Amino acid sequence: MSTETPFDGSTEGNATASLTYPMQASQLAKGDHIQIKNQPCRIVAKSTSKPGKHGHAKVNFDAFSLLTTKKLTDLHPAHATVSVPVVTMKPYLLLDITADGYLSLWDQHSGEAKDDVKVPGEGGKTESKIGGKEEEVAAKLAALWGKDGGRDIWVRVMGTMGREVVWEVREVEG
């Protein structure tokens, strides 16, 4: 069961919405998300040990942080409850890049503008390295934005743990 779900805006503005939800460690699988050391991570490997004579089965997770390039490992009893971060992906149409380094985005479903997402790599340092893709995303955004012809550009924004970062940039086909 993947925890990556499309964002439909239904929880937007809900101050009581949680950044994580509980799940039993044994129920998580490769590709799911888990919170390790307060970092939202994607599980790349999972192994389960058999219960010993006096102990419980243990689950070992190897995961990469969604916001940095760090590989993290965590060990839990199989019956333990772990925190799973809520991860959302939402596409926006790029309207403009402001002089102060923010993207001006438009949500085609709600018709609302969004101006609080920073340009990847802007100012030399951002809050995250977006899984090591920051340079790639920044270069693609610069190349597409610099093209002539008024082409439309889609920007996919990942939201997790109270942060939003540009995850993917692509030109609108057609």
Structural class: mainly beta
Radius of gyration: 19 Å
The backbone outline, from C-alpha atoms, is elongated
Q: How would you characterize the largest beta sheet? A: 6 strands, mixed
Helical percent range? Answer: under 10%
Alpha-carbon distance between the two ends = 34 Å
In total, how many beta strands?
12
How many helices? 1
Poorly predicted ranges: 1-11, 123-128
Strand content: over 45%
- SSE string, helix = H, strand = E? EEEEEEEEEEHEE
Average of the residue pLDDT scores: 83
What does this structure look like?
This protein has 174 residues and is mainly beta. 7% of the residues lie in helices and 47% in strands. It contains 1 helix and 12 strands. The strands form 3 sheets. Strands 1, 8, 9, 10, 11 and 12 form a 6-stranded mixed beta sheet that branches. It has a 4-stranded antiparallel beta sheet with strand order 3-4-5-6, with no helix packed on it. It has a two-stranded antiparallel sheet with strand order 2-7.
Key traits:
174 residues; mainly beta; six-stranded mixed beta sheet; four-stranded antiparallel beta sheet
Secondary structure layout plus pairing:
Blueprint: E1 4-6, E2 20-24, E3 33-36, E4 39-48, E5 58-65, E6 71-77, E7 81-85, E8 87-97, E9 102-106, E10 113-118, H1 134-146, E11 153-160, E12 163-171
Parallel strand pairs: 1-8
Antiparallel strand pairs: 2-7, 3-4, 4-5, 5-6, 8-9, 8-11, 9-10, 11-12
